[in-house]
Amino acid sequence: MKNKKILFFFLVCCQLLLAQKPTIKKANQLFANKAYIEAAKMYEVFKGKQQKEVLQNLGDCYYYNAQMQFAADNYGNLFFKYKDSIQPEYYFRYANALKGIEDYERGDKIMGEYLKYSVDTKKFKEHLNNIVPHKYKVNQMTKSSVTGDFGISFFGEKVVFASLRNAQSPLYKWNEKPYLDLYEATVSKDGILENIKPFSEQINTKTHESNAVFTKDGKTMYFSRTNDKQVQVGEEKFASVKLYRAEWVNNEWTNVYELPFSSDQFSTQHPALSPDEKVLYFSSDRPESLGSFDIFYVDILEDGGYSEPQNLGDNINTKHREQFPFLTEEGTLYFASDGLQGLGGLDIFMARVYNNVFGKPINLGETINTGMDDFAYVLKPGEELGYFASNRKGTDNLYSFIREENERKFIVEGEVRDKITKDLLPGTSVTLYDMDNKLIGQLIVGENADYAFNTEPNTKYRIVADRDFYASKEEIFETKDDGRVRFTIELEIESYDDAEEIIVTKEDGLVYIQLENIYFDLNKWDIKEEAARTLDVLVAIMKKYPRMEIELGAHTDSRASDAYNLRLSHDRAGAALEYLVANGISRNRMRSKGYGERVPLIKCGDNCSEVEHSINRRCEFIILK
User: Any idea what DSSP says for residue 170?
Assistant: First the structure.
């Protein structure tokens, strides 16, 4: 019997040791359950093996907890080893992680690969400094940076916000921090939170509560609460966030109920009321969203019901996150987005309302936004002060701000489209000059292909749009002094293959200038008279489009050795290039390359006819830019 007890004890100890032993399978289970901190500790054990799944998930664990240096390191290793097989969303996360550590050069490069057009955050910030309506003086509202405060709102003379500061709460597996509760406080003249205490026990529960908003009379509140159960949606199991309503009756919050357009299948959160309190705005990843979280609204009906949720549309929403709406007394919408062009992570944007339609969003600029998440902006009615949240120090914190209005200036604005298709052309460079050719501003347009520059009244300007494989577009305009401050100019630019019959885009995706073939004497590379006439057409094209850059590629037939043909084709391509240089084309706009017999148009090997050989002997002119 004694031996059996010893054996049983030994087996139990072995099982405990095995249960504690890290494995990738256990790490994957933790990751699937969104226990990111614990999963990261286990993945770190296997990090040295550089497995794709480990690097992806480890990077995500850090990314979802705003630990951007660790996220960038692991995504960097992932890209170094597996870049050719990585899903697009990792380009997006890696770019934002790099911007979060202010590595904008690499972040812009990765984001450009994701978007398929160039981005330049440095120039974008300089551009914003000229057009943002306000500059912000920002101050953290607490001495501690680890309490996890965000989602502040006005509640009479007080404020209400969400926080992780409940030390009695169980820990949330996502970040191993307490569950969110609502707190109330007063704010000092210096913008510091004082007299902090938990909000109503009728509202705070064992799950998350956040983002409360109140009617002006203080008798009705809307807030977010996480579902108390997880449900399976597709391959993912999660607890959705829902919107709730409560009423202030007999000095307590009562009649708490879930709003009917919430669901177990998706999240509905971040409520905001219109100035007349007849419309409720919110953020949701419901099926009608454009990809992730979008901003929606419902009408609050007189009988207490709600209309069907309506998406604000692609003028505001993108396929990424749009969250934390807030509306001022004038109806201006403030919200956070990581899908619109920004400085990294969530940035705060504003969209003014014109004839009941929101205009194009404007990024609020670097005096309030950073490379990390900046969000949940609120403005005190009738004043130039307010609050917002940011994880710029690694944890969510509340910040107060005082804003100063920038000097009112004339603005030229518009968008860039293809002249033929009318499609927007993101990634186009737009440059503004005065009539002395002095550079006023330059911007690479974002997803909405829109631009805006400050100007002066009664002044002439030249605005130029440049884009690879397109002819430059230039317009001259003059501002007036008639009280108008916006002059909208739409730049329509034309692609080379639309502008010129001899320029074509072939099935291989390359853009060719189709000219008559250039013929050379046997074993020679000097430019003959008929070849010169063909190259003169190329000279004219390149002078017409001074930004065009080309490759001159020479090809031989397969008679003679590969090495000889390679050298011969190199000399022929070089001769063509020198002809263009002699006729006024900058050498910097061209490159020559000899392909020898290695890229035949007709793959006939050693059995080519004379006609087939002549087809394979050719010069090709490929547009590079």
Answer: P
